[in-house]
Amino acid sequence: MKGQVAAVRVLLDSGADKDAADQDGWRPLHWAAAKGQVGVLTTLLKRSADKEAADETGLRPLHIAAVGGHLAAVRALLDSGAEKDAADGRGRRPLHLAALTGQETAVRALLDSGADKEAAEEQGVRPLHLAALTGQVAALRALLDSGADKGAADGSGGTPLEYAAMRGQVEALRALLEGGCRATVAADGGRAVGIALKKGQHAAAELLMAEGAATGYGSAEHWAAFAQWQRGRVAQLVAEREAAEAAREAERAELRALFVAIAAEARRQAGAGRPAKRRRRAAAP
């Protein structure tokens, strides 16, 4: 699809099927949305192409435009009346996909149109969870600005904070904390810290603890991870100090060697001068 609006019009005028599907169930409208070809897309919409046509996975043109961040295509579809909260085969709305891939402008356009910021897919995951998981800070802030529930739990009780901790998304954690998650951190009993430690995300764990997160989340597994992390930190500090001391000792050794060389050269020069003076005295009458 090259966006050749005139050619598309000729084909439609000649009777081409505006909703013909390929082997994956994609219609011309899907392809125009995927490429951000808003001219072709609006031409198809004016010819009554099915804006709610779903491919084999349930994705509609608005999903495709949103995941690609094609703002003009998103707006054209919304203006045409496309269902802003249409779910694909996994329950994901266009807002889920825009948040997942960090398409901030698409996220804001969907929110402005009234898309459900708390919509949950089949596992209970909301758009804010996905933005946190993938570290899409701009999209995450857009959702927080809209009033998205920062403490929302998925089907297993996981919060956006825990999703960010699991992947070590430190900047997403910072955005959540700045957005009002400090109380959540203090109240979760160390769950987010435990997840971060278990996944080896030490920078995330340190940030959470600095913000007042507990470290006493009750499982032995948590404590084992915490102890391992603490041992690792101690070992790291010891290694850093030993390396610094070794560097200082090497520098001192270099200075000592330099002083020895200077002294030796001074003695050599002094010794070379004395015999010459004796020879001159012996030669005098």
UniProtKB/TrEMBL annotation:
InterPro entries reported for this sequence: Ankyrin_rpt, Ankyrin_rpt-contain_sf
Ranges of the ANK repeats in the UniProt entry: 24-56, 57-89, 90-122, 123-155, 156-188
UniProt cross-references to PANTHER family, sorted A to Z: ANK_REP_REGION DOMAIN-CONTAINING PROTEIN-RELATED, PALMITOYLTRANSFERASE HIP14
Keywords annotated in UniProt: ANK repeat, Repeat
Protein name: Uncharacterized protein
SUPFAM superfamilies with a match to the protein in the record: Ankyrin repeat
